[in-house]
Amino acid sequence: MTVTVRLKFFASLREKLGEGDTLALPDGSTVAAAREALRSRGGVHAEALAPGRAVRSALNQKMCAETAALADGDELAFFPPVTGG
């Protein structure tokens, strides 16, 4: 079984990776698995989502940890940390 998630990218990640995409993953996958699958595409994906890069994630519009489990039809967003002023 697989789950398909809708991806969204914001701020500098959107500039590099585009507005969004879809990603099919094995059932039981996590946010970390999605990030790794995107990195495995190579090129700008590997650079923008590299380990150690500060990237936050939100699952269905709520901040989440990389251990969060994904379900079919979820919306997963990636964005850099933001600061306010």
UniProtKB/TrEMBL annotation:
The keyword Nucleotide-binding applies. It holds the Pfam family ThiS. InterPro entries: Beta-grasp_dom_sf, MOCS2A, Mopterin_synth/thiamin_S_b, ThiS/MoaD-like. SUPFAM superfamilies: MoaD/ThiS. Keywords: Nucleotide-binding. Belongs to the MoaD family. This is Molybdopterin synthase sulfur carrier subunit. The lineage of its organism: Bacteria, Pseudomonadati, Pseudomonadota, Betaproteobacteria, Burkholderiales.
